[in-house]
Amino acid sequence: MARQVPQPSPSRMVDAPGRPLVVGIVPGQPELVALTAASWGRAIGSSMLYFAYADPTRAVLAEHPDGSIDHAPVDPDGADDGWRAVQTDIEHFLGEVLHDVPWQFRYLAGRADRALTHLARAVDAAGFVVGTRPPGPAARVRHWLDGSVAVHLTHHQHRPVLVVPLQVIDWTAPSPWA
What we know:
By secondary structure, the protein is α/β, with parallel strands linked by helices. The protein contains five helices and seven strands. Strands 5-2-1-6-7 form a five-stranded parallel β-sheet, sandwiched between helices.
């Protein structure tokens, strides 16, 4: 017997006003994603913006009701302290960019779509804000290997996903393969 997966429906909608947003962020990402999330958060009167980075080199040991996790490196022989520097850098970046909205940062582990979904459920978020990958050969390879976080989110949970374009393609330019 096939497992029934809950589908999006009016009964599963999360009313946006006053609810938090979950914002997927990666190290070195342009400030546009954070600023867009802040703008949308202000527009819906969001109670909190939860910025989160899901580190694919770490594994979840335990998930907590507030959306935080305990994590460890996937490679048990690898160094275990590099993640702290990433967390500090992202928190510093957010502190520089965000001035008038309440926010928290969560360091997550594993697949980004699953980690962000767990956080959204834990905080009863209204939706997600994520950025696109900048175009280029490396991004195409990562997309081919990992897929798109935004696409995975839209196919595997019921909350809306706002995707922030970080670079657009000139449609009038000749195609590189034409």
